[in-house]
Amino acid sequence: MTETKTSRARVAVLVGSLRADSLNRRIAEALCDQAPDGVVLDILDGLAAVPFYDETLDADAVPEAAAALRARVAEADAVLAVTPEYNGTMPAVLNNAIDWLSRPYGAGAITGKAFGVIGATPTPYGGKWAHADAQRSAGIAGAAVVAEAVVSQSALEVDVVADAEVLARFQAVVDALVAYRPVAA
Fold this sequence. Notes:
It is a single chain. The chain is of the alpha/beta class. The protein has a single domain, classed as Flavodoxin domain (Rossmann fold, 3-Layer(aba) Sandwich), CATH 3.40.50.360. 37% of the residues lie in helices and 19% in strands. It has helices spanning 23-33, 55-60, 64-75, 92-101, 128-140, 164-179, and strands spanning 9-15, 39-43, 78-82, 114-121, 144-154. Helix 1 links the parallel strand 1 (9-15) and strand 2 (39-43).
């Protein structure tokens, strides 16, 4: 049977840490491994190759890495950011990805896409400031931020990749993104 866009829900996953074995990367991979039937989580590698957003670059010749990022998000039904927190905010690589996905303004690849954010940090707050910043930025960029699609998990006293309760909360965010339907105007 040929797979069609309507037969499967596609969730583009933006990992805010570039380190290959980062905790948040392992969370994203765990979610991919346990994705329910009919749901594909697509981890978008290559964010390090996307140059910092520059309107001149965008006007002249969009860099290949940025064009690829836009194309894969455009093909997705939803976007999930899985990110740590750096100095009280989201990592620059995630902010940069959202910048590229927001253009052209009002018609960027992220426009209208259900958006959620999860992640873990070795702090008591679990990255909540970064997650709030990511939600705000994605919303301004045109994404449909799903209010209940956020989990900020402390990694101080739990192995977040092995704990069934924590993974269930992360999976609930994926489920909320897949179930999201825009409110009719």
